[in-house]
Specification:
Distance between the termini: 46 Å
Helix content: 55-70%
Order of helices and strands: HHEEHEHHEHEHHEHEHEHHHHHHHHHH
Low-confidence stretches: 81-95, 325-332
Number of helices: 20
Number of domains: 4
Strand content: 5-15%
CATH topology of the largest domain: Rossmann fold
CATH superfamily of the largest domain: P-loop containing nucleotide triphosphate hydrolases
Radius of gyration: 23 Å
Length: about 425
């Protein structure tokens, strides 16, 4: 397969998964350079765009490329000159280096999860096992898991950190290549198995079966199992026996940080970047970012870039003007996702059961698609999470969102109905 053909196929997948504004801003100028047997190289000329793509979308790109290619290959991202390697690296190694217990900011919202993680990392035989950490996106689950992994590895423990997606891919590959015994040896002979985003095993029956037996084998040997994902009570696509196993140990959550913790996170990030920003701007950012810690990092990095490019002093007015319109930032508190369908039902005169059902009447379909759009775009729920509320699959959510995005350009009635729902939910 030619590199440009592979890249075009990958872009098609990425355009369905990534916010339209982010896709248009970051992906239009990416150039495919070359394709070898086991690696594709792409080039991003703008260094800030390159950093943003690496930080936020590396895994998305890699997954899209592997899906298009039909087998696993690695990804190299370089700068404008093929000889200047801005970003040729092992993504896992980068993660391991970045996240430690020492740079995890502890507050009331996460102190139990932090304490449990540290205790597990010390490998006390009396620890709760398994440890299940759950939260919304961007609150520190992965940070804790990687901290555990790094601590265990440093103390000569055979620790494996892996995403559920990668676990699935390896499991499928082992079956295709008749190497299931090698797969079992790898994952059943470790001291600790750490799996991130466990919810993405949902619907993968065969992989769940393999994981269930791996889990049992490790558990009976007294090995550590650490898992992160969504609320285990909401994992509707996972087998009940797996959920039961997860709940048999210690289940801890991470809540959105309070104001004081957010300020501490901002100040820590600023110190890492050697930035000195007035207190009123710090407070403004802390009040602005209501839910997601990654939002804080995005804003601070954006301030860093602005200072580097313009050399101007950052005042509160400059900061506000820079942040306004930044599509990753959602102002004020978000409504509860479970309130969306009732709000759409009331505004459009369609029952909740009809929205969740299979009816194809125009008013029902519009209500369903509006629900998809609000959940995915306004509330930043994943397609999986949105689908679980609407009883729809991944593709249905994507199609619903894309339809509303298109119609909003010219369809006054849909714009009006969307605004009615947003007003009732107090979405800015």
């Amino acid at each position: 397969m030619k590199v440009d053909v592979l890249w075009e196929k990958s872009l098609k997948i990425l355009s369905d998964e990534i916010n339209t504004n982010s896709f248009n801003l970051l992906f239009k100028d990416i150039k495919p350079i070359c394709l070898n047997d086991d690696e594709i190289t792409i080039s991003i000329e703008n260094s800030f765009k390159k950093d943003a793509v690496i930080k936020k979308f590396y895994d998305h790109i890699l997954n899209a490329i592997n899906e298009s290619f039909g087998s696993r290959i690695s990804l190299k991202i370089i700068g404008s000159s093929p000889n200047k390697h801005y970003a040729s690296f092992n993504k896992q190694e980068q993660k391991f280096h970045k996240y430690t217990f020492n740079n995890f900011i502890v507050g009331s919202s996460n102190e139990l999860a932090f304490a449990a993680s540290k205790q597990v990392a010390d490998f006390d035989e009396n620890d709760f096992n398994p440890l299940y950490i759950y939260s919304d996106v961007g609150l520190g689950k992965t940070h804790l898991l990687l901290s555990i992994h790094k601590h265990l590895s440093k103390n000569n423990r055979n620790s494996i950190y892996i995403s559920s997606e990668r676990f699935t891919n390896e499991y499928i590959k082992s079956i295709k290549e008749r190497k299931t015994e090698e797969f079992r040896k790898k994952y059943r002979n470790c001291d600790a198995l750490i799996i991130d985003d466990i919810q993405f095993l949902g619907g993968k029956t065969q992989t769940q079966e393999g994981f269930f037996h791996t889990f049992n084998d490790l558990f009976l040997k007294g090995k550590k199992i650490i898992i992160a994902g969504d609320d285990p009570l909401k994992l509707v696509d996972l087998e009940s026996r797996l959920i039961s196993r997860f709940q048999s140990g210690l289940v801890v959550d991470i809540q959105p940080p309070d104001f004081e913790t957010k300020v501490a996170i901002i100040e820590h990030k600023l110190s890492q970047l050697n930035l000195n920003i007035p207190k009123d701007i710090i407070d403004y950012i802390a009040n602005l970012c209501q839910v997601n810690i990654r939002q804080i990092e995005s804003i601070v990095n954006r301030l860093k870039a602005m200072i580097s490019l313009t050399n101007q002093e950052i005042t509160i007015d400059v900061a506000k003007s820079m942040i306004i319109g930044f599509d990753e930032i959602k102002l004020q508190n978000k409504p509860d996702p479970t309130d969306v369908i009732p709000a759409v039902s009331k505004a459009l005169g369609v029952s909740e059961d009809e929205i969740k059902g299979k009816g194809r009447a125009e008013n029902i379909v519009i209500a369903r698609r509006l629900s998809c759009f609000i959940l995915n775009r306004d509330l930043s729920l994943t397609t999986t999470a949105s689908g679980s509320l609407l009883n729809k699959n991944h593709s249905s959510i994507i199609n619903g969102v894309k339809y509303i995005e298109k119609e909003l350009k010219s369809n006054f009635k849909i714009r009006h109905n969307l605004q009615l729902v947003r007003n009732s939910l107090k979405i800015n």
